[in-house]
Amino acid sequence: MGVDLSDLVEDVKAEINLAELRGKKVSIDAYNAIYQFLTAIRQPDGTPLIDSQGKITSHLSGIFYRTINLMENGIIPIYVFDGKPPELKSAELQRRKKIKEEAEKKLEKAKEEGKTTELKKYSQMATRLTNEMADEGKKLLKSMGIPIVEAPSEGEAESAYINAIGLSFATASQDYDSLLFGAKNLIRNLTITGKRKLPNKDIYVEIKPERIELEPLLKKLGITREQLIDIAILIGTDYDPSGIKGIGPKTAYRLIKKYGRIEKIIEANEIPKNSIDFDINQIRQLFLNPNVKKPEENLDLQNPEEQEIIEILVNQHNFNEERVKSALERLNKAIKETKGLSRQTGLDQWF
DNA sequence: CTGCTGTA
DNA sequence: TACAGCAGG
């Protein structure tokens, strides 16, 4: 989970048409995307898609079809994979692990009792993204000719950095953390089909892609990125998951506007000093100067290796060959058109 | 989440 | 053609 800044971005977020992204590169936090596929691509009883060996394949289905859809819309995704998480994230990762272990227990119980709604809920909560799944995703994307980047640390930070130095038009993520990391242009809800299921309910709502630009956001709020980061720290980030008790986005914003920075808020006795049991400066640095690198990887599209894709999806994971082949036709057509787009604009960079 | 099929 | 409902692996 990232920090919840939804209340603060309300006024600057704008719905966008996918057409606006035609011919543009978009960097994507791969873990974020894969995790969504793992939780969403399931049967009504909560079982994920699996191959004949019982191995989960939901992530491969999601990556494959979503990527082709993006390409058909002229959008070139750059998938950014996580490296080693920062030390400061270990408490949060531990917390998530514990939640999953509890969900696994409840899942077993629900199985025994045959409660289907519980079954679905807990199997989603128990979802784990393994290194093997990430590796399979990388391999599939490579064979599709899609650029991938291996981040030194957090994928979301690297994706934001790629955007900040102009190697992508936008960064796509569900979390707002990208903005804290300095992304200029954040796109949320980057999906093609507009319907999405509400959590734990069988209701579908229309979801449209939206854009939030960092500079207009800061201008509108009348604060600096440093101050936005302080707001996030007060609310709670992955590095201080519980934040300050009783402080949400609105209060955090008000306090930062009034006092400028967290230390001053403490001095003014607006929050108890002992409510901060973490190193503020260390967290600030993780957002302001994250461990990122200029990608050495080639960020241009390559030609897809069809045989390799069929080997992975059909031979190894029991995807339907005809479905895969028809999707590959769409991919090839999309690549031709996208290359045509770049020729028309006379640029070899796809902007 | 996304693709595909059946229905009007 | 458009869209609901189910299947995918």
TrEMBL record:
CDD domains: H3TH_FEN1-Arc, PIN_FEN1. Its cofactor is Mg(2+). Residues 343-351 are annotated as: Interaction with PCNA. Residues 1-103 form the XPG N-terminal domain. Binds 2 magnesium ions per subunit. They probably participate in the reaction catalyzed by the enzyme. May bind an additional third magnesium ion after substrate binding. Mg(2+) 2 binds at D175, D177, D238. The gene is fen. The keyword Hydrolase applies. Mg(2+) 1 binds at D29, D82, E154, E156. Belongs to the XPG/RAD2 endonuclease family. FEN1 subfamily. Residues 24-310 form the 5'-3' exonuclease domain. The keyword Signal does not apply. It comes from the Archaea. It comes from Acidianus brierleyi. Structure-specific nuclease with 5'-flap endonuclease and 5'-3' exonuclease activities involved in DNA replication and repair. During DNA replication, cleaves the 5'-overhanging flap structure that is generated by displacement synthesis when DNA polymerase encounters the 5'-end of a downstream Okazaki fragment. Binds the unpaired 3'-DNA end and kinks the DNA to facilitate 5' cleavage specificity. Cleaves one nucleotide into the double-stranded DNA from the junction in flap DNA, leaving a nick for ligation. Also involved in the base excision repair (BER) pathway. GO terms for molecular function: 5'-3' exonuclease activity; 5'-flap endonuclease activity; DNA binding; magnesium ion binding. This is Flap endonuclease 1. Keywords: Coiled coil, DNA damage, DNA repair, DNA replication, Endonuclease, Exonuclease, Hydrolase, Magnesium, Metal-binding, Nuclease.
